[in-house]
Amino acid sequence: MQTFLGIGLGPIQTSIFLDGAFRGGCGRLVIADVDAALVAALRANKGTLQFNVASASAVTTHTLTGVEIFNPTVPVEREQLIAAAAEADEIATALPSIAFFKHIAGWLREGFLRVPDRRRFVYAAENHNHAAEALETAVGAFPATHYLNTVIGKMSGVLSAAECAQRKLPALTPSADRGHLVEEFNKILIQSCPGIEERSVQNLIAKPDLLPFEEAKLYGHNALHLWLGLHAQQRGFQMMEEIAGAPELLARARVAFVEEVGVALCRKRAGVDELFTPIGFAAYADDLLRRMVNPFLTDRVERVCRDLERKLGWDDRLIGALRLVVGQGLEPNILLEGAALGARKLFGDDREQIRAGLSALWKHSDAEAVAIWERLSQHL
Q1: Which of 141, 200, 248, 314 could form a disulfide with 362 if both were Cys (CB 3.0 to 4.6 A apart)?
Q2: What is the gyration radius of the CA atoms in the chain, in angstroms?
Q3: pLDDT band per the 50, 70, 90 thresholds, residue 129
C-alpha cells in the first residue's frame, strides 16, 4: 500500500499533492498541520474534505475522502507522524516559506531514520528555487530519499467561512473556518530523479533541469503578477479581475513580460525547451495574463501585494527579474515602474529611506546592487 504524507494543509497541498495522491490510488493519505481547529474540523467530517476549482467559466467542487490528519505539536500525534514519515513513499511540504523547515525537520528525520533505505520522493513546494536543498540540509541526507524542487504555476487562495457562504461554495468541511479556491491549471513541474516515473501522485511533470522553469515562474509569472497587483492597488482596485477593464495596463504588463523578461530568459536559456523561444514565451505570457484576471478566481489585490519585505528581496520576484534583465544586457524600464511602486508602498516616499530599506532587504552593496539602485531611483 502506497502512503502519501502532506505537511501543511493549504490550497496548494489540497488541490495538487493530496488530490494527486488520492487520484493516483495511494492507499493511505496523511496530513500534518499545527492548526488545532482545522485538525478537529477534518476529523469531525471523518476525513472528507472539499476544495473549489475555478475555470474560465465556472467554479466546481472536488471531494477527497479517507484523509488522516495529525498535529505535530501534540506528543501522541507527533509519534503518529513519525511513523507515517517512516512508511511514506511520497511526501509534499507546502509551508508558507522554507523558514518553517526547522519546525518539521526533527520529526521527519526521526521517521526517516526508522527506515533509512526506503525510497522516498519528497516534493518541496515553498515557491523557492532551492527549497529542496534547504529541506535536505534541515532533515538530512538518506541513501534513497530524493528531495525535489517544484515549479507550481497554479494560482490559489483561502476564503473565510463567511466568504464561502456568500459565494455558496463549500468550506473544507462543514465546520471548517475556511475554504480553498484554486484555478484549474494543474501542470506542475518537478525535478527529475532515478525512478521518478514510478510515483503515484498524478499531474506532476518531471524535468531534468528545473532551474530555467523556476526562473520563468518567479521572474515571469510571479513578478508580473505582483507588478499588476501594485498598479491595481494604485488605481484603487480591490480585485484582480478589475484589471480586465484596464486593457492599457494589461498591454503594458505584456510588454514587460514578453519583451523584458521573455527576451532575457530566451537569451539566457536558449535551447532548453520550446518555452524559451519567442513564440513559446509569448504564449506562456498570454495564458498567464488571462488567468491572472479570471473573475471566478476572485483574487484579491491585497493578497497579491502582501509580504513586500519578501517579494522585494534580492533573489525574489521584481528585483530578481530586474537583475535577470540587466544581466542579459537589456533595460527593464517597465519592470522598474512596478518595483518603484512596491518600494514606495513599503518604505514611503523619502528616497533615502527607500535606499536604506532596500539595502537592508538585499544585503548586497556590490556593483550589481549599485546598478539596480541607480535604475530604480530614476523611477521614484
Answers
A1: 314
A2: 21
A3: confident
Give the residue ranges of DSSP H helices in 235-314. Answer: 247-255, 263-268, 278-292, 301-305, 308-311
pLDDT on residue 1: 83
| Interior angle at CA 310, CA 260 and CA 303, nearest 5 | 85
- Classify each residue of 188-220 as buried b or exposed e, where b means 16 or more C-beta atoms within 10 Å of its C-beta: bbbbbeeeeeebbbbebeebeebebbbbbbbbb
Please name each of the domains of the chain with its CATH number: 3-208 (3.40.50.720), 212-377 (1.10.1040.10)
Grid cell in block for residue 122: 519528497
Q: Angle CA(174)–CA(3)–CA(70) in degrees, nearest 5? A: 45
* Secondary structure element (H or E) that encloses residue 181, with its range: strand 178-183
pLDDT at 316: 94
Indicate the burial class of 332 (C-beta count within 10 angstroms; 0-12, 13-18, 19 or more).
Answer: buried
- Residue 103 is predicted with a pLDDT of 98
Is the Cα torsion angle 94, 96, 102, 107 positive or negative in sign?
Answer: negative
Find, among 124, 127, 67, the residue nearest to 90 by Cα.
124
What pLDDT score was predicted for residue 128?
Answer: 86
Look at the pTM and tell me if it is higher than 0.85: yes
Contact between 212 and 269 (Cβ < 8 Å): yes
Element (H, E) at 136: helix 131-139
Predicted local distance difference test score (pLDDT) of residue 173 = 98
Q: Please, which residues have CB within 8 angstroms of residue 293's CB and are 6 or more apart in sequence?
A: 240, 241, 243, 244, 250
